[in-house]
Design a protein that fits this description.
Elements (H helix, E strand, L loop, with lengths): L22 H36 L11 H8 L1 H31 L4 H23 L6 E3 L19 E3 L7 E5 L4 E4 L5 H8 L4 E3 L10 H6 L7 H4 L6 E7 L5 E4 L4 H4 L11 E11 L3 E9 L2 H12 L9 E6 L5 E9 L19 H6 L1 H4 L2 E6 H5 L10 H4 L6 H6 L8 H6 L3 H8 L3 E8 L3 H11 L5 E9 L2 H4 L19 E11 L2 H4 L6 H14 L3 E2 L9 H7 L3 H9 L9 H5 L9 H26 L12 H34 L2 E2 L6 E2 L10 H7 L3 H13 L6 H7 L2 H15 L17 H14 L1
Parallel strand pairs: 1-2
Antiparallel strand pairs: 3-4, 4-8, 5-8, 6-7, 6-8, 9-11, 9-12, 10-11, 10-14, 13-15, 13-16, 14-15, 17-18
Helix pairs in contact: 1-3
């Protein structure tokens, strides 16, 4: 028989030598360990060297005033290397991940259609169910979204949501429909500008107001503040909205169009204080692949204002499609007028401004101050997001050499740090100190006041460049019957024959001049001065910034009449916070206790003065009363009056009590069938004769009985109370016989005391007995 040879087991025996125990490996192991340690050491050393160099070259913590806390000065010293080596790479990774997820989701979902409508209905139902559960629970806390505030595009770090009931809305981020023929887009509120750019530009379309920052959501623009360089023609973002869909606090779904003007114009700038936005329908524009931009330098604020007025007033077909300006100091600015173009030309060569190795756009625009006016063609996508790489001009404040060719070559391809990650890296101490070391403010003012606004911004902030966006504000008061919503323009600023007027948005982003010089900049004083001036000229403040106004001052700046009606009509007063509570800064940023106390004192004084004037106007004129000379005498007189009044009140109570008791002691008379006092039913008087003849009446009968009955054992009630039940019944029967007139048959019924409902039965018995 042939035996099968078994395969040897792969088990190491003490007699077998492994590779790890071989002499060659034993000799190379120290070399591998040394190489690994050297690599780690070189990496750590490189990181430390880069960190120190970036800190030395870019940080300005030493220039800060000693008034700032040491934590903030340390963070300012380490800001540049932390951003370069940590935040920028993390932002790059997060951006690539978001882009891949967005494209995968778009591929799996498909371009809208019936499936998107079904998913949207399921999303709305989930929100409604959350709200109904909160409603059934007693509506105990205010409603807010569950989105973290660090992810929102605002300067606030805290969310003021800790004590609120948070509703999950993160799944509302789908494009529902793109109507290329009707030029409309329907989408959910969580869709970002970057997603809309990827979806619309290949179709030759764009939003009527397409905002430049890619991470801003369309829902935030619809319920908050949205402005673009074509706003001089089409107005703010809210003017492009055709339909809002929201869910109120009871979970009911509402679709709002211009057919309901009061509610339709109350929703913009309401910041979700009426309901939760679930979708919206907006207008689209047809586009061209390129934008031809003309750069026009100006040398004074007056010249800048006149040029903007001239360009914005041009007729249809001549006015630029995009119009803005960048102010580099108090006098010098560059106007950028853009026109759609099909292709570049020799006069306007192509410039892809958003390529990572190119200089920042605002630095490129600044060259017009030295070289004079020129024009160029820019791809539409590059133009729409021209400020993304530099975060307007904020990145140079964070990384001072970020526009240097070496930085752009080594780090430029990573892109800018995300605003949300910048906020997430802040702590409460750094956040409070940054408000007094950095300014982000916008004021919307009438265009003709721009020179005054520039001068005041220079005094308040001294931060350059300044953003200048002309914007047309529309008056819808004729549709609503008195108000255009929160942004209601003054009638004096409306152009003659038009339903709109030209305003301008002036924005300051950066480090104030005082902080750069090592001094202390009072953020509260300067921002409150800006808010006061903005209210005076009939303008408005952008509410995504840090505000220092009180609730009363905010209501003086904005018209809340339509919003208040909408909140009451849809039961939002007890469900959602006020606009002020949603846009105010976190606790500890601004101390407004003195201002609030002054407002309360003024209101109290004004109320007292109003009451005095109202009473003086409505009262009858009488001769002036003589006032006492002494304060103590006045006090004693008032005390005497109060004592006399109390005595009168006490006497009236006694009289009412006696009357009630006397009524309770009364009985039904067998003769007149009315409730009379007990003595009238007692013998010893001629009550019946007095009733018949009408002489003397009740009072006479009472007095006659009192005279005849007192001598026979006390009052009749006391005698009846002392008698036995049988004697009392006999006495009552005797009284009834005495009172019965001779012309009527004597009643056989015995009359007993009656009270309340029993009295009515007694009357009926009395009538039946009397025939």
């Amino acid at each position: 028989r042939r035996r099968r040879r078994r395969a040897p087991l792969l088990v190491a025996t003490p007699h077998q030598s492994s590779t790890a125990d071989s002499p060659t490996f034993q000799q190379t192991r120290p070399l591998l360990n040394i190489t690994m340690l050297a690599t780690i050491g070189y990496g750590v050393a490189s990181f430390v060297i880069a960190f120190v160099l970036a800190a030395l070259l870019g940080s300005d913590g030493g220039a800060l005033s000693k008034e700032f806390p040491w934590q903030f000065r340390l963070a300012a010293a380490c800001r540049t290397p932390v951003l370069m080596l940590i935040v920028v790479p993390l932002s790059f990774i997060r951006g690539k991940y978001t882009l891949a997820r967005r494209r995968l989701r778009r591929y799996l979902r498909g371009p809208g259609g019936k499936a998107a409508a079904i998913r949207h209905a399921a999303h709305v139902d989930s929100i409604s169910e959350q709200l109904r559960a909160w409603d059934r629970g007693g509506r105990k806390r205010k409603l807010r979204t569950a989105r973290s505030n660090w992810a929102a595009m605002s300067t606030k770090l805290g969310s003021n949501k800790e004590e609120c009931n948070q509703i999950a809305l993160g799944h509302m981020n789908e494009i529902l429909d793109v109507d290329e023929d009707g030029l409309t887009l329907t989408c959910e509120p969580g869709v970002t500008m970057g997603e809309l750019t990827d979806e619309l530009l290949p179709l030759g379309l764009m939003l009527q107001s397409h905002i430049e920052m890619e991470s801003i959501t369309i829902g935030g623009l619809a319920m908050g503040f949205g402005i673009e360089t074509n706003s001089h023609k089409v107005g703010l973002f809210q003017e492009s909205v055709l339909e809002y869909e929201f869910v109120d606090s009871h979970g009911r779904r509402h679709s709002v169009t211009k057919d309901q003007p009061e509610l339709f114009y109350a929703l913009p700038w309401s910041y979700g204080t009426v309901g939760f936005l679930t979708s919206l329908k907006v207008k689209l524009l047809r586009t061209q692949p390129y934008v031809r931009v003309e750069y026009l330098p100006t040398s004074s604020a007056a010249e800048l204002t006149s040029q903007l007025q001239r360009l914005a007033a041009l007729g249809e077909g001549q006015a630029p499609d995009f119009l803005e300006a960048t102010l580099y100091d108090r006098d010098n600015a560059v106007i950028q007028a853009g026109y759609f173009d099909a292709r570049p030309s020799t006069a306007a060569p192509l410039n892809r401004i958003n390529v990572w190795y190119k200089p920042f756009y605002y630095r490129h625009v600044e060259t017009a101050l030295r070289s004079g006016a020129f024009q160029e063609s820019i791809p539409l996508q590059h133009f729409l997001h021209r400020f993304t790489r530099s975060i307007f001009w904020e990145l140079e404040d964070m990384i001072p050499f970020s526009n240097h060719p070496l930085y752009r070559a080594l780090w430029g391809w990573l892109g800018p740090p995300e605003v949300s990650l910048l906020k997430l890296a802040q702590g409460p101490v750094i956040r409070r100190a940054s408000v007094y070391a950095h300014v982000v403010q916008e004021s919307i003012m009438p265009l003709w006041r721009l020179p005054e606004g520039i001068a005041k911004f220079d005094d308040w902030f001294g931060a350059y460049p300044l953003l200048v966006f002309p914007v047309r504000i529309f008056d819808h008061s004729s549709e609503t019957g008195g108000s255009s919503g929160l942004l209601t323009p003054r009638a004096a600023e409306i152009e003659q024959g038009e339903a709109s007027g030209l305003w301008v948005d002036l924005g300051a982003y950066g480090v104030p001049r005082a902080v750069r010089e090592g001094a202390v900049w009072d953020a509260k004083e300067n921002i409150r001065a800006m808010e006061h001036w903005t209210r005076e000229v009939g303008g408005w403040q952008a509410l995504y910034t840090d505000i220092f106004c009180t609730p009363t001052e905010l209501r003086q700046m904005f018209d809340f009449s339509l919003l208040d009606k909408a909140r009451k009509r849809h039961d939002g007063v007890d469900a959602f916070p006020e606009v002020y509570d949603k846009v105010k800064s976190e606790a500890g940023i601004s101390d407004l206790s003195a201002e609030l106390a002054a407002e309360r004192a003024a209101a109290k004084k004004g109320t007292a003065a109003g009451r005095r004037s109202q009473s003086a106007a409505t009262s009858v004129k009488s001769p002036p009363r003589r006032r006492s000379r002494s304060r103590s005498r006045r006090r004693s007189r008032s005390r005497c009056r109060s004592v006399a009044a109390s005595r009168v009140r006490r006497r009236r109570r006694v009289i009412r009590t006696r009357t009630r008791r006397r009524h309770d002691r009364s009985r039904v008379c067998g003769h007149c069938r009315r409730r009379r006092a007990l003595p009238l039913l007692w013998g010893g008087c001629d009550g019946a004769a007095r009733h018949d003849s009408g002489r003397g009446g009740v009072a006479g009968a009472w007095r006659g009985h009192r005279r005849g009955a007192r001598g026979r054992g006390g009052s009749p009630r006391a005698r009846a109370r002392r008698a036995s039940p049988a004697a009392r019944e006999a006495l009552w029967q005797r009284a009834a016989l005495r009172h019965a007139p001779a012309s009527r048959p004597r009643p056989a019924a015995v009359f007993r005391p009656a009270r309340g409902a029993r009295a009515a039965r007694h009357r009926r018995r009395c009538r039946r007995a009397a025939g």
